[in-house]
Amino acid sequence: MQPAAFGATVVTDRTAEVAAFYQQHFDLEVMLDLGWFVTLRRGEADWELAICERGHATVPAAVSAAVESTNVFGFIVEDVDKVAAALGEAGVTLETSPVTEVFGQRHFFVRDPAGTWIDVIQLVEPDPEWLAANLPTA
Question: Which of 29, 42, 37 is CA-nearest to residue 12?
């Protein structure tokens, strides 16, 4: 199977608030807004983020019953520290501080208003010693 596109969905009681969060902080644009269902995308991306009302008939009952999200969405950005500062200034709580990982990421975590975890990632050069130990050349 080769999917034509990818999408993820946040199920929440606060569709408008969650959609506004992604518009404001991640520059996503509303593609469709039915009130109970909103899709967002950036430009011509072949992926989209949907926000769906908890309890809607299209949502499985087990999903609507879940109240704590364990999903993690990753957004790759150019400058993690700039995004962290902007989110903090806007009153968004950073769940972790930005940290640089030896495997080539600088990142931090926040949560959207529905509680979905977001890993904000900047790609950086991996540590040469880590590369040599973990990805030996053939």
Answer: 37
Angle at 88 (CA atoms; ends 110, 29), nearest 5 degrees: 65
**Other Cβ atoms within 10 Å of 19 Cβ, number:** 24
* Chain segment 82-127, per-residue pLDDT in tens: 999 999 999 999 999 999 999 999 999 999 999 999 999 999 999 9
Between helix 80-89 and helix 15-26 the angle, nearest 10°, is 130
For 88, the 3-state DSSP assignment is helix
What b/e sequence results for 97-135 when a residue is b if at least 16 CB atoms lie within 10 Å of its CB, and e otherwise?
Answer: ebeeeeeebbbbbbbbbbebebbbbbeeebeeeeeeeee
